[in-house]
Amino acid sequence: ILNWIVVFQLDPENTGFIAVENFTSLVEHHELQLDPSKLDMLFALVQSNEEGQVCYQELIELMSSKRSSSFRRAIANGRRTLQREILLDETGLGVYKRFVRYVAYEILPCETDRRWYFHQNRLCPPPVFMAIITIVQIIVFMCYGIMLNKWVLQTYQPDFMKSPLVYHPGHRAQVWRFFSYMFMHVGLEQLGFNALLQLMIGVPLEMVHGILRISLLYMAGVVAGSLTVSITDMRAPVVGGSGGVYALCSAHLANVVMNWAGMRCPYKLLRMILALVCMSSEVGRAVWLRFSPPLPSSGPQPSFMAHLSGAVVGISMGLLILRSYEESLQKQCSWWVIVFSFITFLLFAIFWNIFAYELLGVQIPPPP
């Protein structure tokens, strides 16, 4: 319907541009029901054009709740600002809308983006990915905790390391282990740390940026974690979802730092310091367990390299994702550079796992 209106009424000469007078007349005479926030942004977009016109493609993206980078630049540089109060001044909001506003100020650095997200949010689809991952991790941990009657340092139990979910270098031909290790955890302390961050940071990120982008970032951190361990710490197993968690946290913290002036989350400096201290402490704990195990063990303890590789994924791929709110990643050259680099790493890691262990004569501990 919108295509027909544009061709026959708004753009009869098929120039690709629509005069604001034509669009305003259509809105008034045909009583089109448009979201007020969209109408405000449309007029702001028109004001950024010297001839008072809007590109047809920009109009289509606006009406379909999609925004391109050129639209974002036009809004940012337009001579007319959006005629709306800032979200913090809005009153009479319900519990859910107040939570959406809280998420907007936690995640997004630009007031225009925050208003756009606040008015476009429909909770469909809901942020189920991080919730499902966390629930499954808790269920798996409870099952092994009951079976082993042990809730901390579970990796010292031989039956724990026999799990088909744990990544072990002796079982690296079982490809699913490069993913499934994220459901196993050393103990209650690691599970609690990861679950807390997944819910406090992962869920808001998923609400704003969508399930596809956040699940891609999380799983990229998980896969990079196990593959990095197979290259740099070839005798060690891996457990825990720290690769994915550190990808999310590092991307979010880097985005906050790079947009420090625009972020409006309260106590951001204190929270940044607290997050860095907690993440560093978790890495330190993993290093200690790897090289100075407190209990006798039959083999090497889980590696800490998954934490570091997850952080690298977050700072590279994750930062670009978070900075591209409502923008197409496929149209950005930097996105394809990162994708090419990640695929190159995957191919290198695959060949390394196939040939390097025998060529280097690595003595792998017998699989449990």
TrEMBL record:
UniProt-listed Enzyme Commission number(s): 3.4.21.105
Cellular component, GO annotation? membrane
Instruction: Give UniProt keywords alphabetically.
Output: Hydrolase, Membrane, Protease, Serine protease, Transmembrane, Transmembrane helix
Please give the catalytic activity noted in the UniProt record: Cleaves type-1 transmembrane domains using a catalytic dyad composed of serine and histidine that are contributed by different transmembrane domains
Cellular localization per UniProt: Membrane
Show the SUPFAM superfamilies listed in the entry: EF-hand, Rhomboid-like
> Function, please?
May be involved in regulated intramembrane proteolysis and the subsequent release of functional polypeptides from their membrane anchors.
Name of the featured protein: Rhomboid-related protein 1
